[in-house]
Amino acid sequence: MSVYDLTGRKALVTGGARGLGAGMAEALARAGAAVVIGDIREDLGEATADAIKKTGADAAFLPLDVTDEASWERAIEGTIAELGGLDIVVNNAGVEITQLVADLEADDIRKMLDVNIVGTALGLKHAFRAMRPGGPAGRGGAVVNISSVAATIAFPGIAVYSATKSAIDRLTRVAAMESGKLGYGVRVNCIYPGLCPTEMGNQLAQDVVELGLFPSVPEAIGAVIGLTPAGRLAEVEDIADAVVFLASDGARFVTGAGLPVDGGMGM
Ligand SMILES: NC(=O)c1ccc[n+]([C@@H]2O[C@H](COP(=O)([O-])OP(=O)(O)OC[C@H]3O[C@@H](n4cnc5c(N)ncnc54)[C@H](O)[C@@H]3O)[C@@H](O)[C@H]2O)c1
Hints:
Elements: E1 10-14, H1 19-30, E2 34-39, H2 42-53, E3 59-63, H3 69-83, E4 88-91, H4 106-131, E5 141-146, H5 159-181, E6 186-193, H6 199-210, H7 217-226, H8 236-247, E7 258-261
Parallel strand pairs: 1-2, 1-4, 2-3, 4-5, 5-6, 6-7
Helix pairs in contact: 1-2, 1-8, 3-4, 4-5, 6-7
């Protein structure tokens, strides 16, 4: 059997209703895992879970606002009840609000800190409590946090977003250290995806034009591709397959690592 096979594993993907998270949920299910999608978008989340179920996989949607501690408690409890365990948590939910530093709005800064940093930190907390020995799932596992190439390069218009993604990088390292030292049996890694034309990625390309940083959307995208040795944008499956790898036994000796999946942009 392949070391990337996830048959019997139980996964929770935050922000899995659409975009990269939906692709991650689909890829985890293709690899054999049962998957819960946790998101604030119930309409989209139910539809994505239904589409996965139609492939014959075990999938469900549960409401989850990653910024809210009580919501995390309900979602983790609900996932374990729904799937019969929890082995994989993907902290993917995130928001990006494009602003020049000179025009930053405190409320927008706080929104990004809240979803991207508080949301990921609470995800780590509740994953550890559930998956460590003695927890309600209790058999260790893997957490994959979604950082960004924005944590490894300086791109205009995304200063605070980039800062939150750098924070996810550091959360990953310290969480992996604590998990190892305290015998939780949970590997913790992060991925730095390159620009992918999801709703977030497409919106960013429009925003940087509106801010006067690039003359047009094709030129903004062309600039990103020009900085990317692989010569193209990311596709959802590029990122999703890396999540499957880090969640699988193929990565059994990988923890506290950050994996660029960006075509070489952030090298
Ligand atoms: N698209 C890119 O180019 C790109 C590049 C690097 C990193 N990322 C990161 O990948 C992740 C997914 O990005 P995407 O492009 O799919 O974005 P997206 O906006 O298409 O999807 C984000 C999902 O997160 C959900 N979400 C937002 N706030 C939430 C909350 N408080 N609680 C639960 N769910 C919430 C949304 O409802 C949505 O389903 C994000 O963390 C993003 O920062 C994206």
